[in-house]
Specification:
Blueprint (H helix, E strand, L loop, with lengths): L17 H12 L4 H15 L1 H4 L2 E7 L2 E6 L2 H22 L6 E6 L7
Parallel strand pairs: 2-3
Antiparallel strand pairs: 1-2
Length: 113
């Protein structure tokens, strides 16, 4: 990728809507569409259920990988076993096929007490 300086449009007809510009940047970064990402975060609890949602939360969705954080190793293991099923459910719930796999991480303990 080469760096090009910003050049203002020559006329109003040449202007690009901000949404189109953002979508282009997001695609270049490998992120999922904003609509899909928002939908995953908004529908997380309804897809995984309140028990899991209370211990596991989505963190990011980039290059088809949904990263989630679990607050305990047991919850991380549970999600790893359910990963393929959750990917299918989330893709169905978002009407997209942008999630290809799920990656589970442990949340860092809160050191500030």
């Amino acid at each position: 990728m080469t760096w090009e300086p910003y050049r203002p449009p020559r006329s109003e007809d040449d202007a690009t809507p901000i949404a189109a510009s953002l979508a282009k940047v997001i695609r270049k970064l490998g992120a999922a569409s904003p609509k899909t990402t928002a939908s995953v975060f908004e529908q997380w609890e309804s897809v995984v259920g309140p028990a899991i949602a209370g211990h596991v939360e989505p963190q990011s969705l980039v290059d088809g990988v949904l990263v989630v954080a679990a607050d305990h190793p047991q919850w991380a293991n549970q999600i790893k076993w359910m990963a393929n099923q959750l990917v299918d459910r989330l893709n169905e719930a978002t009407n997209a096929q942008e999630i290809q796999r799920l990656e589970v991480r442990l949340k860092r303990p809160n050191s500030a007490k």
